[in-house]
Design goal:
CATH topology: outer membrane lipoprotein receptor (LolB), chain A
Number of helices: 1
Shape: globular
CATH architecture: Clam
Strand order of the largest sheet: 1-8-9-10-11-12-2-3-4-5-6-7-13
CATH superfamily: Lipoprotein localisation LolA/LolB/LppX
């Protein structure tokens, strides 16, 4: 996993063009961090997740060991599938672009080079609020095609503080197995619950992969 470069810059600006991930791609996401919760102490957060983006179907799917999450923005529904045996359905706020594009109000922190003339990128700062939790993210993407390289994530809420370093790697265009987006029959007839009531899986990628924060 590649680690985050901490940048110090003196001149910033807002985003001047629409930066979104490629329309169909998949790859790996590794993350490491920690949290502190009032009254119960803290701990380490770590995990490895496979993520798939499909602009045309407006879906994002993630696979984490035996867990699969399908985010269907056409129906504003998130499907949480455990071991292909249990299914939950939750409301999915926002749009596909909210999860895959740098927002217009992001702060452009300037360009960077990873390695010696190896990879040219750009870093953006994004600040949002979700349910009384302030979220700050520093997102580094490739300069040419806006593929995410690393996200530095910090959240401060009334009861919980969290920090994570999230690395994106081995991304390719297209899909090896498009069925990752298919909703299994066990989800038929399942009642949809509010987003806040959905089960939180151990390294549930959609809790922090969104660049603009939850609405």
């Amino acid at each position: 996993m590649k680690f985050l470069l901490v940048l110090c810059v003196t001149v910033v600006s807002t985003v001047a063009y629409k930066c979104c991930v490629p329309k169909q791609m998949e790859g790996n996401v590794g993350h490491f961090g920690g949290y502190y919760q009032d009254g119960s102490g803290g701990g380490v957060i770590t995990g490895l997740t496979r993520v798939h983006y499909d602009f045309y179907a407006e879906k994002i799917a993630t696979v984490d060991f035996d867990n699969r999450i399908i985010n269907d923005f056409n129906t504003s529904t998130q499907y949480i599938i455990v071991k292909e045996e249990h299914c939950w359905k939750a409301e999915l706020p926002g749009t596909y672009d909210d999860f895959t594009c740098i927002p217009d109000n992001a702060i452009d922190l300037g360009p960077l080079v990873l390695g010696i003339d190896v990879l040219y990128g750009r870093t953006y700062g994004v600040q949002t609020t979700f349910e009384d939790t302030n979220v700050t993210q520093y997102v580094t993407v490739t300069e040419d095609d806006c593929v995410t390289v690393v996200v530095d994530y910090i959240s401060n809420g009334p009861e919980t503080t969290q920090i994570q370093c999230i690395g994106f790697y081995d991304f390719t265009l297209g899909f090896k197995d498009p069925s990752v987006f298919d909703v299994p029959e066990i989800c038929n007839g399942v009642e949809t619950v509010a987003a806040k009531d959905a089960p939180k899986l151990g390294s549930h990628i959609m809790q922090w992969i969104r660049r603009t924060g939850y609405q």
